[in-house]
Amino acid sequence: MNTASPGGDEGPTRWLTADEQHVWRAYIHATMLLDDHLDRQLQRDAGMPHIYYALLVQLAGAPHRRRRMTELAIALKITRSRLSHAVARLEKNGWVRREDCPSDKRGQNAILTEDGMQVLERAAPGHVHAVRQAMFDRLTPQQVEQLGEIMRVLAEGLQPQDSGADLPWLR
Questions:
Q1: Are 72 and 110 in contact (CB under 8 A)?
Q2: CA 45 centroid distance within chain
Q3: Which pTM was predicted?
Q4: d(C-alpha 109, C-alpha 94), whole Å
């Protein structure tokens, strides 16, 4: 089949070969299973979804445990609306607080509280164990290196170079 691609400006569709289709489906299957596994582990052991854990990690690694909401949305690749909802939930738990950004009256910072840091410190060992068991313990050192290289290539190729890109986390 050699049909034009949607938009018509990229030439004929380059369909996936049987091997590429096999790899693509294995990738989708594995990432869905991994996401589900890590989310269930965090829900069970820490009472939070994976996205909340990722948000706490971002704040813990930021100077003074604070980060602009816009920067968090970009780092987590989620919409500002979804981030605002997550931060509101974490605020309710006492793990995060918000404050106005002094340099930008429209902006806000999210700050990891001491309680939030303690929750993160308690959750981290179980999460790291789950990541290690689900991923790294199954791979050889060479496969880990190859996977890291592959993921960097994919991320670099997908990272928009245009600051005006229409991305959900910039809305």
A1: yes
A2: 20
A3: 0.83
A4: 15
The CA distance from 12 to 5, in Å, is: 6
* Cβ atoms of 95 and 115 closer than 8 Å: yes
Residue 19 above 60 pLDDT? yes
User: Which of the given ranges, 74-78, 136-140, 162-166, has the highest pLDDT on average?
Assistant: 136-140
pLDDT tens, 63-117?
A: 999 999 999 998 998 998 999 999 999 999 999 999 998 877 778 999 999 999 9
For residue 103, what pLDDT is reported? 79
Mean of the pLDDT values across residues 161-171? Answer: 61
Q: What is the 3-state secondary structure (H, E, C) of the chain?
A: CCCECCCCCCCECCCCCHHHHHHHHHHHHHHHHHHHHHHHHHHHHHCCCHHHHHHHHHHHCCHHHEEEHHHHHHHHCCCHHHHHHHHHHHHHHCCEEEEEECCEEEEEEEEECHHHHHHHHHHHHHHHHHHHHHCHHHCCHHHHHHHHHHHHHHHHHHCCCCCCCCCHHHC
Q: Taking the CB of residue 6, how many other CB atoms lie within 10 A of it?
A: 8
**Adjacent-strand bridge partners of 97:** 111
Contact call for residues 56 and 116 (beta carbons, < 8 A): yes
